């Protein structure tokens, strides 16, 4: 494998998918990674000390923000070991079971509900309390990158702490960014807010879930680096030298159902728009499943190809569970039992062998090397630690 010069620092990227309460799965992985880093460098270190870019969509955006946002001492707001505590404490209030039952009962009665499944009040209050009036430019340890989608303008809006430092109108409150990226269609209301500069100019945002633009935000995170280089007018030739040999990328999924042939051409040819939105009694949403699943796999495919093309696939680690069934495969089942099961999935995922996407079939397959995700994560931690020590 071609390697960069010994003292040349690598770009380090952490990316976390969207997936609602399934954020417990990457939460488990992140706690394991931070624990390994603490074994190497001491109990006070945090993930934001090691990653140049931390990105997340939807629930991944919440996690990324909690890992990167500063407390009063300028250190990360919470350690990775507290991510799952956050979900266990607040999950059932963000996704109240009674609201979910009432909503789908209305659907079964063929009486279309007039509002989303959840009103989002608890989540908005929680993020406002947790993040207060901190803004994107307050993040100094790393570059936070959060994809959202503006439903009014029908295009993606990518928030980053680097952009916020150069443009006041992009310096949104972290709570607003979190509520925007997590406003999943059907489940939560869209989130509207404004930013204002010293001259009184305003910019408005009407946001829904970042998963509409990037369910897997890894490419968005990597591209934010190139965008920053272009803004600094560093030159295209120099930017092109930043390839997979000079990057360490960790991409964490929130789990997916196993591959199965749910639908076929004859079936969907008879569907109306309502059928594409909801399939009962399982409450599947074929349109959302198709878009979210397809784009996430394509991102992984594209990144793996980038790294493979320069013989640096070891610099890209994707950890994803593709065997979720029943309630675990849904994004809003926050019962005690299901949350416990999701944590168990994350712990078992660490013991599984590393998997990569098969370019021919689009399915994930275990690599030939006999290495578990936990071992790969330990190797990744050692490389992150070494990078941090470079001058």
UniProtKB/TrEMBL annotation:
Chain ranges for the short sequence motif GXSXG as given in the UniProt record: 56-60
Catalytic machinery residues: 58 (nucleophile), 209 (proton acceptor)
Highest taxon in the source lineage: Eukaryota
GO molecular function: monoacylglycerol lipase activity; phospholipase activity
InterPro entries: Acyl_Trfase/lysoPLipase, PNPLA_dom
PROSITE patterns: PNPLA
Sequence motif: GXGXXG, positions: 18-23
Keywords, comma-separated and alphabetical: Hydrolase, Lipid degradation, Lipid metabolism, Plant defense
Signal peptide, first to last residue: none
Domain PNPLA: 14-222
Family of the protein in this entry: Belongs to the patatin family.
Domain characteristics, as noted in the entry: The nitrogen atoms of the two glycine residues in the GGXR motif define the oxyanion hole, and stabilize the oxyanion that forms during the nucleophilic attack by the catalytic serine during substrate cleavage.
Role, per record: Lipolytic acyl hydrolase (LAH).
Protein name per Swiss-Prot or TrEMBL: Patatin
Organism for this UniProt entry: Hibiscus trionum
